[in-house]
Every structure is written in C-alpha cells, then in structure tokens.
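Record type: monomer structure entry
Structure origin: computed from sequence
Chain ID: A
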Amino acid sequence: MQAKPLVSIVTPSYNQARFLEATMRSVLEQDYENIEYIVIDGGSDDGSRKIIEKYADRLTYWVSEPDKGQTDAINKGFAQAKGEILAWLNSDDTYEPGAITEAAAFLQAHPEIGLVYGDANFIDEHGRVIGQFPAAQTDLARLRRGYVHIPQQAAFWRAELWQQIGPLDPSFYFAMDYDLWVRLARFGKVYYHPRPWANFRLHSDAKTIMDDDRCWPEMLRVHYRDGGGKLAPIVLKYYLRRLLAPLVTWRRRRRVKQAAEEDHV
C-alpha cells in the first residue's frame, strides 16, 4: 500500500479572531492523518494569538508578527512547508469534513494531474450556506480567456509544481490565486472534481465584498504580461464586468445583509 502523501495547509490571518477558530478546527478535525498545518498571523491585536496558542501543540509551525499582507503571509507559510501536496485556507473560510482525504487520494491516483479542485459553498458569517461558487472545468486556454471557475478554498496542487513556479507574486493584492492557476496550468493538468470540499465565507469585511473591483485589473496584468492582446475575451469580460460591477457588489452585499437580518427575526 502506498504511503499517504504529506499535505501542507497554510492559513494566513490578520485580525480574524471571530472566524479563525472555525477555520483552524476545520483543518485539525479532518480525518486525514498526514497533515502539517501552518498558521501565519500578521501580528493581530484582536485575540487571534490566543486562539492560535490554544492549538499550538497541533501546529507544525506558527508565527504572529507583522508582515506585508496576505500574499506575503502565504509565501512565508509555504517556505516552511514540507508536504507533497499544498493548499492554503484563508482564516474566514473552512474545509468540509473529508476534503483533504479525497483530494490527496485523487492526486495520488492520478499522477498526471497537477492541480485538483472541488466545489465550495458560499456561507455567511454564521456558517450558513447562502449559495455556491460557480466551479467548473477549466484549463490554461480558458484561464487565459478569464474563465477561472477555481474556488481557491477547494484547490490542492503538487509541491513539485510550486517549486517550479512559486512563490506567489507579492505585487498582487487580489488576483494572486488567478496568477498561480495560470502558472500551474502551464506545467500540469488542471482538473475539476465535483465534490464539496470547502466553504467560502461572505461577510461585510471580506475582500470579495470590500475590494472586488481590484480583481479584474490584476487579472489583466497577468494577461498582458503573458503576451495577451487588447481584443482578447478576458479584456472584453473586464469591460463588461466594469459595467456590471455595481450590480455584482450590490447582490453580494444584499446576500450578506439578508443573512444578517434573518438573525434578528
């Protein structure tokens, strides 16, 4: 029987105490035995450190100190990682039970796949499901056209690919995951495995709510860096998204607000 590969999970965090414990427990309570868990906190002052210390004996590595933001924290975490399979889980998201077992087994059974991802629910601040991320099969060509469809929370990839193309580009605030998917897809096959692996939390302070307008300009930076033209589908999607951005943001805020209002009914 093949030994189960070591899976390294990194959680970057900064002042997310109200969600951090749920995130950490969703990793630590997985049924997969061979996990190393790394938490990189940016020097939070909201009680996050006490939560991390509560589980310190179950962590492979952790630190709480100022950093240069989320991308820097993720890179710091992966610099400590020893696993054959890598993933990161933000400190307001969670894994579904059994996710890591399924992802590791899939990659072990399919050595030709470099990146596998499953489905992710949208959840509110209380963990209630309020929608589903539109995950779908993609590849390098479709990624270059702006068809991403990869929920970062439910994505797992091989460390050997990270060693070829990592680390994350620290100049990206929002689209560092899109940049990573494009680079990974150049060297390995990308596969969508339709299984519920993660939960993507929408709340009033989330980047997806507060700063979504920064995503597409950063995606265009990747496009032009890689030689893309001005009439490419991703450029046209960018301009369409600019027109629809107020509606998209309003719908997300409304979804979060409705969930909050239900708490007071």
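Annotation 1: Strands lie at 7-13, 35-41, 61-64, 85-88, 94-95, 113-123, 129-132, 155-158, 189-201.
Annotation 2: The longest strand covers residues 189-201.
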